[in-house]
Amino acid sequence: MSISSSVRKQKQMGTIATGEHTEVPPITLSEHSSTGLALLRIFVGYLWFQQLFWKLPPTFTGLYGYIVRESQHEILPGYGALPQHTFLAGCPSLSSPVGCTAFVPLAACVWTAELVVAISLLFGLFTRFGALLATILAVQLYVGLAYTEWIWTYGMLVLLALVLVAVPAGRRLGIDLWLAPRLQAAGQHHRLARIANWFV
User: Fold this and answer.
1) What is the value of pTM for the model shown?
2) Can you give the residue range of the structural domain that contains 65?
3) What is the CA radius of gyration of the chain?
4) Is residue 182 situated within a structural domain?
5) d(CA 128, CA 166)
6) Are 130 and 120 in contact (CB under 8 A)?
7) Helix/strand/coil for 14
8) Are 83 and 144 in contact (CB under 8 A)?
9) Most confident of 1-10, 41-50, 88-97, 187-196
10) Count of domains for the chain
C-alpha cells in the first residue's frame, strides 16, 4: 500500500467521522468467506439430519423423555405448561408415551420440521427459510432444555441458525445459486416470487 493511498483512506475516514459523508460502503464477502459459510450451512444441516435418527417414526419414542424434561425444567416461568397441555395431554405415565393421544401427531410435526431444516441446509434449498425454522426450533430447545445440559449448547445452535438467516449461504454450493437469479427475474412481475426470493 502506498503512502498516498493510506492518506486518502485517512481523509475518507475523517469525513465519515465528522459527518460530512455518512455513506458506508456495502460489505461484500470474498469467495473464501462465502465458501466457509456454505460449509457451515452444510455442517449445521448435517447436525439436524443426524438428530432425526434417535426419534424415528412411527412411535417417536426417543423424543418423549425430552418432552417430559421440557415440561419440568424450563427457563421461562410457565413454559412447562405448554408441553404438559399439548404433547403430554392425557398421558397416563411420564415414563412411556403409550396412551398419549396427542403425542404422536405433534411429535410427527416436530420430526418433519427438523427434516425440512436438514434438507434445506444440506442442499442449500430455500436456505433462509430452513435457517428461520431452525432458529425457531433451537429457541424452543433452549427455553425447554438449557437448564438440563450445558446452558450454551442450545444457545450456540440458535446463534448458528441466526447467522444462516442473515447471510444467503445457500447461494454457494447450493440449489439457491440456481434459484436466486430466476426468482429475482420473476419477482419483477410476481409478488410471490419477490417474497420467495428473500428465503434463498
Assistant:
1) 0.83
2) 33-170
3) 22
4) no
5) 8
6) yes
7) helix
8) yes
9) 41-50
10) 1
CA distance 183 to 185: 5
Judge whether 6 lies within some domain.
Answer: no
Chain centre to alpha carbon of residue 179: 20
**Cα(196)–Cα(184) distance, rounded to whole angstroms?**
9
**Phi, psi values for residue 124, rounded to 5°:** 60, 45
Q: Is residue 110 part of a domain?
A: yes
Residues 129 and 120: beta-carbon distance below 8 Å: yes
Q: Write out the three cell numbers for 9.
A: 483512506
Q: Which of 78, 100, 102 is nearest to 91 (CA)?
A: 100
41 CB-near residues (< 8 Å, 6+ apart): 121, 124, 127, 131, 164, 169, 170, 174
- Cell (9 digits) for 124: 442449500
All 3 cell numbers of residue 168?
444467503
pLDDT digits (tens, 9 = 90+) for 118-148: 999 999 999 999 999 999 999 999 998 888 8
On whether residue 175 sits in a domain, the answer given is: no
Distances (CA, A) of 79 to 124, 139, 141, 170: 33, 12, 12, 34
The closest of 50, 53, 57 to 121, measured between CA atoms, is 50
